[in-house]
Amino acid sequence: MKEKLLKYGPAVFIAFVFIQSLFFKFTGSYETDHIFGVLAEWSGLTWFGTYGGYLIGTAELIASILLFTRFHGLGAIMTVGIMSGAIFFHLFTPLGIQMPEFNSAGNIIGYDGGLLFGMACLVWLCGAFLSIKDIKSQHGFLASFIKPKGI
After folding, report:
1. Is 97 helix (H, G, I), strand (E, B) or coil?
2. Helices 2-26, 46-66: inter-axial angle, 10-degree rounding
3. Does 151 map to a domain?
């Protein structure tokens, strides 16, 4: 029971966060337009403002699915990679830690107080935990790439 909770608890949390954010990423919400627009302007990659939400959302969906398959280690390491990017961009670009909140007309009505950044950090920790757990597992997907064979 404890083993299943340690495996599926963090996976369920990651999938919940990723999947609930798909609505924003796949519908062109004001929040998504703001985040990826700022990153596109900062990086000079103008296409990222238009397609970044779809690209990251698709990666998050794939990671969420993989977390509940025999390739859960791959889903976990994908989570770490995706969230490392999110954390980096929040800390080291004009994006910042606090994200604006918008009303239905697209006007800023407040800020999230760093909630999105905090969620990214929690998801990263869960992904790192699951990755390490998979590496240490005798039959882990990631273990097959890291542990030397025959030793």
Report:
1. coil
2. 150
3. no
Q: Is residue 134 part of a domain?
A: yes
Phi-psi map region of 122: left, alpha, beta (phi>0 left; psi -120 to 50 alpha): alpha
Judge whether 76 and 67 are in contact, CB under 8 Å: yes
Domain of residue 41: give its range. 2-146
The 10s digit of each residue's pLDDT in 107-142 is 999 999 999 999 999 999 999 999 999 999 888 889
Number of domains the chain contains: 1
Cα angle 100, 80, 95; round to 5? 25
18, two tokens: 């990723």
Domain presence at residue 128 = yes
Dihedral angle over CA of 106, 109, 110, 114, nearest 10: -30
